[in-house]
Amino acid sequence: MYPTHPVLDAIADFSDELRRLETESSELRRLSPGVVKKFREIGVMRIIQPARHGGYEADPRVFNEAMYAISRASGSAGWVTGVVGVHSWHIGLFPDKAQKEVFGADPDTWISSSYGPAGTAKQVPGGHVLTGRWSFSSGSDYCDWVFVGGLVTDGAGGPPEYRHFLLPRSDYEIVDVWHASGLVGTGSNDIVVTEQFVPEHRSLNVSDTLERNVPGKEVNTGALFNLPWFGVLLNSVVVPLIGIASSALDEALRVHRDKFAANPRMMPGDLTLTRFAEASGEIDLARDMLLRNLGDLYQTALRGEDPTPAQRMRGKRDHMIAVGMAVAAADKAYQSGGPRSIKTTSLIQQLWRDVHAGEHHAMNLPDGTYPVYGRYLVEGDALLPSIPGAY
Question: Are 11 and 122 found together in one domain?
């Protein structure tokens, strides 16, 4: 069921060193240079990058498994893998001119992001002039480009147009503000842009992106680039949480296995054993559910078919279910790890904080998703045209 790929083999070989480097990443508040160097050698961020520009253009499930495996060794590295690696796919939706600008000199160029519409832009001949400040741009210290979101007003009182803008490192400032309780080593700093011109080929209307009406498909004709936006993007902020929760469970089990090995009468009580069983099931179910949904979308794209509303809606529902499962599993691991789990030196509490930090990502909040899916169950496909961007 699980995909194979040379990058996954290389990640497995690097996992012990990656685990050790997590401490350095936390101390630096950004990824250890050793992690970045190895990731570039392996090509971690090129898994779903267009083959035309040096990427693997792999089955997207390989990217899910890479995030999962890396997050089991390093929560910070796994999170950055998700939210930077997915941008190598996103750039494939942009005009070819933009793709060449990003990857022309170096196919392993990294792109960070902060997609929320925190910027304002005005249309000018040949593009837009953009201003704004965006938070939580993970991995930005090691990236040469950034995606940011902005609203374009027409000046006549009409509704604003939401666009994603792509800017090179020379056009924005990174402000070091990252002091957080979890995912400490991700370097999720602020991005500041002041009255910067962004040419037309370096921005996309978000509505067009959601509808897969994007110019990149003219040159990137493979099935990977016909997948729906949320079908790919949502995985990048939930699969790392599943990997981190899995590591937390392993650490809690290690504590009790060590006790049991020293004294066979130290078998945990039924409540702890039940928590272990439930957490194990939640991790496996979340991981497998997301792989199934992504594989289903990919097979649909390989057949040259459009994703169905049911596939899209189910994917957003199951994303939220997977977030809940990862958080629940991490909580049970923390509850079962014994009193030493509260120490600042405890790996379990670090992993617990990482999962809860990732839970706060805007796309991991259930407020808007579950009610929409509930209405979809009642109204069916007739609901969707009334909710822009619902799927």
Answer: no
User: How many residues in the chain?
Assistant: 391
pTM over 0.85: yes
Is 229 domain-assigned? Answer: no
The CATH number assigned to the domain holding 193 equals 2.40.110.10
Q: 3-class SS at 5? A: coil
Average pLDDT over all residues of the chain: 94
Q: Which residues of 168-177 are buried (b: 16+ CB within 10 A; e: fewer)?
A: eeebbebeee
In a domain, 220, yes or no: no
Cα–Cα distances in Å, from 361 out to 204, 334, 336, 381, 384?
23, 21, 26, 28, 25
Please report which confidence band the pLDDT of residue 391 belongs to, taking 50, 70 and 90 as the band edges: very low
Contact 45, 99 (CB under 8 A): no
The total of structural domains in the chain comes to 3
Residue 111's SS3 state is strand
- Note the pLDDT tens digit of each residue in 158-197: 789 999 999 999 999 999 999 999 999 999 999 999 999 9
Would you call 214 exposed, middle or buried from its count of C-beta atoms within 10 A (0-12, 13-18, 19+)?
Answer: buried
- Indicate whether 246 belongs to any domain: yes
Give the structural domain span for 141: 110-205
Do 134 and 45 lie in a common domain? no
pLDDT tops 70 at residue 386:
no
Region 348-369 average pLDDT: 93
Amino acid at 316: K
292-308 pLDDT, tens digit per residue, is 999 999 999 999 999 99
Indicate whether 134 and 62 sit together in one domain.
no
Distance, in Å, from the CA atom of 283 to the CA atom of 295, rounded to the nearest integer, reads 18
Based on the domain organization, do 200 and 244 belong to the same domain?
A: no
Would you say residue 171 lies in a domain? yes
CA dihedral 126, 132, 137, 142 (to 10 degrees): 60
Q: What are phi and psi of 156, to 5 degrees?
A: -110, 10
**H/E/C letters for each residue in 232-270?**
HHHHHHCHHHHHHHHHHHHHHHHHHHHHHHHCCCCCCCH
Looking at the chain, which runs of residues are DSSP E strands? Answer: 111-124, 127-137, 145-152, 161-168, 173-175, 189-199, 203-205
